[in-house]
Specification:
homodimer, about 190 residues, alpha/beta, Alpha/beta knot, eight-stranded mixed beta sheet, two-stranded antiparallel sheet, about 30% strand, globular
Amino acid sequence: MKRFVVVGHLASTDPDFSLNDLPGAGRMDELCRCVAASLCLSHGMRRDAGCLLILLGGPKAPKTIRFSGESIRNLSPDERNIAGLIKKALALPCGTVFRESSPGVEVRRGGLAEVLAACGCAVLDEGGNDIRRAGTLPETFLLSDHRHFSEEEQELMQGLPAYSLGPCVLHADMAITVLHNELDRRERGWI
Amino acid sequence: MKRFVVVGHLASTDPDFSLNDLPGAGRMDELCRCVAASLCLSHGMRRDAGCLLILLGGPKAPKTIRFSGESIRNLSPDERNIAGLIKKALALPCGTVFRESSPGVEVRRGGLAEVLAACGCAVLDEGGNDIRRAGTLPETFLLSDHRHFSEEEQELMQGLPAYSLGPCVLHADMAITVLHNELDRRERGWI
């Protein structure tokens, strides 16, 4: 199971955000593209992948939404469709345990600390080791949206292995796509 | 100058498509993501890249819209913003010569035959050579949307070099992201 954890520093936890202004909902457009990059292939779904969005915007933050390729149905990769699933998840009352809002989509209260306590992550960082030259890769990768990780987040992340994808700094969704390509190649003996 | 040419087999040439249903406009969402993948970095634009969308849906087809990183301004990567630029281009009367509809965005009548007559392309194909093992790469890559190239298109493409990106078939926008990563690495000596 490959997992991509994306921190949306301003992303709305209020389900009433407008589908007609996803950038205005704390760059929700970028988080939607991250879900598509994590789970969608040209004709089918990546059933062995998941995406966790950590939403830090608004009074109900932090909330975490988990998309599981194993159980999600008919995920169209367009931003508006995925944003609709996020709205539905945010509208569901929840505690600190994941609760399903749609097939393959769950939501809970909690943020990065809770995710890091549950699984070993690697982080993507411009100063990290070149991913193509790295040995065995972990199953979970941590990424940030358009903002850098905060000091508090960086403290939580201390000691995590760091990888770089190339000389250009990419949007989080693009980084997930490049990561998947590297993982696909390793799995299928293309390296 | 790197160029990505994407054939949208059903993509609307009617500017009245709805921004609230981009998949319904002949999978316009995918073409919008291709523009973002071609031109956008995390904090800035790829000034040395361009994206040509070939729209084949509707009575005004074929039309070609060219996005140039060199001259485009403030391109936000969300689908709706890019779709707005496409609508504006489609609303502009044009002939067979490119005409500017917004800074860095131009439109003309014509399709794949005209593009192939003007520049040497490579095509992405599952059966092509592994891109990581390929020698010098061309500057222009040809991709299809969710549909395969038609027989007529394949005839036009005969003899073009073909490359494969990996073992999984990706959406066109994802393929552009992986291509850029390979080109970035080669340019900056990361290989």
